[in-house]
UniProtKB/TrEMBL annotation:
Domain of life: Bacteria
Pfam families noted in UniProt: Acetyltransf_2 (PF00797)
UniProt lineage: Bacteria, Bacillati, Actinomycetota, Coriobacteriia, Eggerthellales
PANTHER family linked: ARYLAMINE N-ACETYLTRANSFERASE 4-RELATED, N-HYDROXYARYLAMINE O-ACETYLTRANSFERASE
Name the UniProt record assigns to this protein: Arylamine N-acetyltransferase
The species this protein was found in: Adlercreutzia faecimuris
Entry similarity comment: Belongs to the arylamine N-acetyltransferase family.
């Protein structure tokens, strides 16, 4: 569990004052603040050449004290601890990426679920891509608007759900083309179940270990770095830059707040 001072420091890290009550509106606010403050990144993993330390104390030191980021096994674990400390009923879930048509990935993601007001919500801050940036109900209710984008939770069986996103239509007001995002299982799992998954996902030959990546939402879009390619999206505008080594270090500092020796 996080201590009182750790809760205060963590909330300050994501720009939140006081202790927000465990409400749906505050959950959406906490997700938004987290996604615009703490980057998804594999830079530390690539440069260390080993799986990250998943102890809560190590994650707090890395992401709050040293103001680094992490990948799903780090980000969602620490955010889950914050939510629980604030009074939310939060737990992890097994997930897999589903963003490549015709490809079924092995389980490779730690998701995050919150039970609140009779609903089960996906509250994921560790996907590193176009996942819902606000709580998404796991219910067959059709497309849902989450932080300005359309998503849908589709039941696959008694335990598994698929989350799809939609490109906006021409007017940007209704769902357009359907695209896959991830699949998740709502069966209860233990925190320790993700130790082996993190180890497997941090081995040579995996995208997390072999390529430095960073992703951070902004007030008007998001910015991402993959290897030497920096992509900046602001509304409907997209810019791409190919960076040299020195420029990449500056981009990590200026766009993601990441400083590595």
């Amino acid at each position: 569990m996080l201590t009182g001072s750790q809760i205060t420091d963590y909330l300050a890290r994501i720009g939140v004052e006081g202790r927000p009550a465990p409400t749906a509106a505050n959950l959406a606010m906490l997700m938004e603040r987290h996604l615009t403050s703490v980057p998804f990144e594999t830079v530390g993993l690539c440069r260390a050449g080993r799986a990250p330390d998943l102890r809560l104390s190590a994650l707090f030191d890395k992401m709050v004290r040293r103001r680094r980021g992490g990948y799903c096994f780090e980000l969602n674990k620490l955010f889950e601890a914050l939510l629980m400390a604030l009074g939310y009923d939060a737990r992890p879930c097994l997930s897999r990426s589903a963003d490549v048509p015709g490809q079924r990935d092995p389980i490779n993601h730690r998701g995050l679920l919150v039970a609140l007001d009779g609903d089960l919500l996906l509250a994921d801050v560790g996907y590193g891509g176009p996942a819902p940036a606000a709580p998404l109900r796991l219910a067959p209710v059709g497309p849902q608007l989450a932080a300005g984008a359309w998503f849908e939770a589709v039941p696959l069986d008694a335990c598994w759900w698929r989350v799809d996103r939609f490109r906006p239509d021409a007017a940007g007001e209704e769902p357009g083309e359907r695209l896959g995002v991830l699949e998740l299982c709502v069966a209860r799992v233990e925190d320790a179940d993700f130790e082996a998954l993190s180890l497997a996902c941090s081995q040579p030959g995996t995208e997390f270990r072999d390529q430095e990546m960073a992703n951070l939402r902004t007030a008007s879009g998001h910015v991402s770095l993959t290897g030497d390619r920096l992509v900046i999206r602001e509304g409907a505008t997209r810019r791409q830059l190919d960076l040299a080594d020195a420029d990449r270090a500056a981009a990590l500092r200026d766009f993601f707040g990441l400083v590595y020796d």
